[in-house]
Amino acid sequence: MMKLWLAASAALIGTAAVAQMSVPAALTVGSMSRASPVLKAERSHENFEPALLFPDQAKAAKAKLDALAKKKGRRPNILILVVDDLGYGDVGAYGGGEALGAPTPHIDRLAREGLKLTSTYAQPSCTPTRAALNTGRLPVRTGLLSPVLLNDKADISGEILSAKLLTQAGYVTALSGKWHLGEKEGSRPWQVGFDEFLGFLGVANAYQEEHPSASDVANDPELLAQLRSMPASRDLWRATKAGGGKSLGQINWNNDRDLDQKFADFSEDFIRRSVKAGKPFMLSHNFSKVHYFNNPSKPYVGLSATKDVFRDSVIEVDDIVGRLTKTLEDLGVADNTLVFFTSDNGPEEDSYPESGVTPFRGAKGTTLEGGVRVPGLFWWPGMIKPGRVSDGLFDMMDMFNTTLSIAGVDAAAAIPKDRYIDGIDQTSFLLADNGQSAREAVYYYNTDQMAGVRWRYYKMALSEIQVGTGSVRDMGGLDNAQFVSPINGYMYNLYLDPKERKSVLIEKAWAPSYALGPLLAVHGGTLAKYPPKARVKFR
User: Is residue 74 part of a domain?
Assistant: First the structure.
């Protein structure tokens, strides 16, 4: 077994071939081909991730899109709803909602009338996920490995965002709310593809130290004044691609409670203006909530059964989802709009008890399922069969390819051949009545650490971030964490063991030999052929 992981390690770091590999002989280091009887994905273009092919469902999805285009006479709209730090188990559709004192009827409606995915994957933290969603690329390829902190010089200007390609295709695009992909000139939303922006550029903690719950700072006027003088963006920005950006003032404890309502006002207005202009739109609506410290808008204070700020904020988020979907319906464009609802990572347990919940082990900051498996709901009346539930793999990066496909953009032609796209076009998966996922594998990264791979319901963990020692391993977070790298790795059956408690590496030795190992070797080949911006660490 050790030989397998030595081979995979060599593949990932691009070194010379390791003798006597226990993976199939055809999988030499750096190879982008695969020779395994259980792997079926095919590569359509050399710089695109291999995908499973389902010709019948692709045909069915195309027929739906063609019929819609004939009926509507314009391309579909796209609305992406990203909540900050929402846990897998926080909304009713995934076991939470009213059971946790915070009903989520509007979000639950998306599941009831659309497609509910149970294996949607984000990155372990916010910036990497948002970069992946917008670029279709892993964080090691974009260099955006971890949350952008105060005055961080993160740079996404060299990447190609879906907003840019959609704008070139005739769409109007906007981003509302949290950006978190860089504050520097050249990396702001209106500078990398979005036509309009209302929101904040940095991390919420830049303006939240004055919250009463942060009493060590809020009650120290001298320290608070010093922190406020630090060169970090605390501004609420309004910007257009044509006119540039303008600060609408500083965000503080007194006004941040209403941020999400301001973002909702902007998003609703953008939708209305786009529809009136007869333009297809792509809107990325990014909530400030439920990232701690939560400060619900006054009408929502004490509205949850638990009377706590987190659950009150969940209800506020749900109401905004309902408001935006109702706007689509009132304007008569719901049947021409793909809506995707998700979270940027698992719950932030560093802030417990002001945090979400997950049925899985781990939380934000880990590659345990609790850190990266998030809600994934697709709603498109008349296009997506109501009430579907699927455990097919879906990675946040797939939204890049999927939105471009739905918009009629040829991603392969638009993307330079010098960069690798990790996303997969999942259009047929979403639209075919019994569609299957085109994704064969999900790769886990924590910053620049290659942490593992999932194939079907088997997960190989090459390393894990864990908290505590011994049996105290359940909670996750960005603080107090440590890497654990077992000699042979851990392998879990996620159906039988969703909390990743018992490794089945030895008893299921065929899985690493014929699926997980070859997948890692092929993935390593893409890193060798298309060197990422970050040096990948393996074990």
Answer: yes
| Phi-psi sector, 66: left (phi>0), alpha (psi -120 to 50), beta | alpha
Interatomic CA distance for residues 21 and 7, integer angstroms: 6
In a domain, 310, yes or no: yes
* Judgement on whether residues 436 and 446 belong to the same structural domain of the protein: no
Residue 149, both tokens: 């902190």
Q: Which of 403, 425, 441 is the last residue of a domain?
A: 441
- State how far Cα 410 lies from the chain centre: 22
- Give the per-residue pLDDT at 196: 98
Q: Which of 441, 474, 505 is the last residue of a domain?
A: 441
Domain-located, residue 458 = yes
- Beta bridge partners, 458, equal 455, 493
Among candidate residues 45, 106, 126, 523, the one labeled active-site is 126
d(CA 100, CA 310): 11
Can you tell me the distance from the alpha carbon of 417 to that of 436, in angstroms, rounded to the nearest whole number? 28
Is 106 part of the annotated catalytic residue set? no
Query: Once rounded to an integer, what is the mean pLDDT over residues 11-23?
Result: 35
Question: Is residue 49 included in any domain, yes or no?
Answer: no
Taking the alpha carbons at both ends of the chain, their separation in whole angstroms is: 15
Q: Are residues 29 and 96 in the same domain?
A: no
Task: Give residues with Cβ within 8 angstroms of 276, minimum separation 6.
Answer: none
d(CA 107, CA 287): 14
Alpha helix locations (H) across 169-213?
205-208
On average, the pLDDT of the chain sits at 89
**How many CA atoms are closer than 13 Å to the CA of 284, on its beta-carbon side?**
29
Same domain, 450 and 415: no
Q: Total domain count for the chain?
A: 2
Q: How confident is the model at residue 323 (pLDDT cuts 50, 70, 90)?
A: very high
Secondary structure string (H, E, C) spanning 297-352: CHHHCCCCCCCCHHHHHHHHHHHHHHHHHHHHHHCCCHHHEEEEEEECCCCCHHHC
- The enclosing domain of 524 has a CATH number of 3.30.1120.10
Q: What is the CATH number of the domain that holds 342?
A: 3.40.720.10
Note down the domain range covering 478.
2-44+442-538
Q: Are residues 189 and 215 in the same domain?
A: yes
Is 211 marked active-site? no
From residue 238, alpha-carbon distances to 4, 32, 253, 349, 518 in Å are 52, 44, 20, 32, 48
Count of alpha carbons within 13 angstroms of residue 280, beta-carbon side = 24
Q: How far is CA 271 from CA 182, 258, 384, 402, in A?
A: 26, 20, 21, 21
> Hey, how many other C-beta atoms are within 10 angstroms of the C-beta on 41?
17
The predicted-structure confidence for 42-52, as pLDDT tens digits, reads as follows: 999 999 999 99
Q: Which of 180, 211, 285, 523 is catalytic?
A: 180
Residue in 294, 431, 412 with CA at minimum distance from that of residue 355: 294
